[in-house]
């Protein structure tokens, strides 16, 4: 028997005047449902169903007590009696509220309709933009991962909208819990592959790991995190449906989230080392220090901002993951899990801003469509740790700089030579680093004169 349709009335105020006909009708309906439940519970053998029926019985009994007091109050003429009945009705109303709070999945805090509906629409629009940009710029891996994450976000916030209309809906609660918790794993998977692309664009010497090692290591970590969180969510769902403690399921989710936070922290360390090395070498050697094949990508207007956007997006998702970890550690009944202000600020806002950044500064916008980024995906190469060490690369660049400087000093034409401009132009095309050093030496010579 489905008891979800049993009406449970939770009044907001107790001092209002309720028509006697309404009081009589509601009381009779509650009494009828209570009688039906008592017949069913006598033969019920399933523990979960029995617990659910008993909760409904308590709610109906509290509702009947409340409306019984209202019925007496409606016919009483003595002001002192009416006042006493109003006090008792207020107490009965408080009992009803407490029962409703215990039977709902948000500790009685209704998810806001406007905020969650707006977020559902926002993430749906982000999904549309990501599909258009991903297809246009042919960023298939980024598109697949980020679209999967955004689909989960849309479903999750749709579940919260559903919960607004039915606070006791088990399916709505599980839908929003699992989808919103898992979504950032897929968002980060897209960023991990982007790191592999940037390693190829800038040069493997500036990265601690090889390009595909970022995808393999961190996406595997993401997969482990997803399995742990999904498994914990399934356990918690089963425990909730049977009215048992959800501590076992939430513990699994905590482990999954903790694993995600640790892997993201490790990724950030590698990312900032990579960014620092690129910055230092650009300041010292210019663009000639990087992979020449992808110089066209690095010259694009949106490529430098892409580094900053990606850095901020990772930090935002990292903050969100720490919040979710703390929330799960506190438990489903904790203040973090049931205070929507925290949720909207540390979950919804963080992921929304991160998605906004990687949509406005999309990888395709940063790279363009003209140059294909070739990543060596062979397993033999990916699992090999042999690559040029960063210190060796710096040493080689310094040696090249010294050699170029000596060569330039020998080739530098005399002041006033009419062929000076042509020689420099040819040298800039053939030897970018030599050409830059040549200009520096010429400028220093002219200043000294």
From TrEMBL:
<keyword id="KW-0813">Transport</keyword>
<feature type="transmembrane region" description="Helical">
    <location>
        <begin position="214"/>
        <end position="237"/>
    </location>
</feature>
<comment type="similarity">
    <text>Belongs to the lipid-translocating exporter (LTE) (TC 9.A.26.1) family.</text>
</comment>
<dbReference type="InterPro" id="IPR007568">
    <property type="entry name" value="RTA1"/>
</dbReference>
<keyword id="KW-1133">Transmembrane helix</keyword>
<dbReference type="GO" id="GO:0006869">
    <property type="term" value="P:lipid transport"/>
</dbReference>
<feature type="region of interest" description="Disordered">
    <location>
        <begin position="396"/>
        <end position="422"/>
    </location>
</feature>
<dbReference type="Pfam" id="PF04479">
    <property type="entry name" value="RTA1"/>
</dbReference>
<feature type="transmembrane region" description="Helical">
    <location>
        <begin position="301"/>
        <end position="323"/>
    </location>
</feature>
<protein>
    <recommendedName>
        <fullName>Sphingoid long-chain base transporter RSB1</fullName>
    </recommendedName>
</protein>
<comment type="function">
    <text>Catalyzes the ATP-dependent translocation of sphingoid long-chain bases (LCBs) from the cytoplasmic site toward the extracytoplasmic side of the membrane (flip-flop). Involved in the establishment of the functional lipid asymmetry of the plasma membrane. Regulates intracellular levels of LCBs, sphingolipid precursors that are growth inhibitory at increased levels.</text>
</comment>
<keyword id="KW-0445">Lipid transport</keyword>
<keyword id="KW-0472">Membrane</keyword>
<dbReference type="GO" id="GO:0000324">
    <property type="term" value="C:fungal-type vacuole"/>
</dbReference>
<feature type="transmembrane region" description="Helical">
    <location>
        <begin position="140"/>
        <end position="160"/>
    </location>
</feature>
<keyword id="KW-0812">Transmembrane</keyword>
<feature type="transmembrane region" description="Helical">
    <location>
        <begin position="113"/>
        <end position="133"/>
    </location>
</feature>
<feature type="transmembrane region" description="Helical">
    <location>
        <begin position="343"/>
        <end position="368"/>
    </location>
</feature>
<feature type="transmembrane region" description="Helical">
    <location>
        <begin position="172"/>
        <end position="193"/>
    </location>
</feature>
<dbReference type="GO" id="GO:0005886">
    <property type="term" value="C:plasma membrane"/>
</dbReference>
<feature type="transmembrane region" description="Helical">
    <location>
        <begin position="257"/>
        <end position="280"/>
    </location>
</feature>
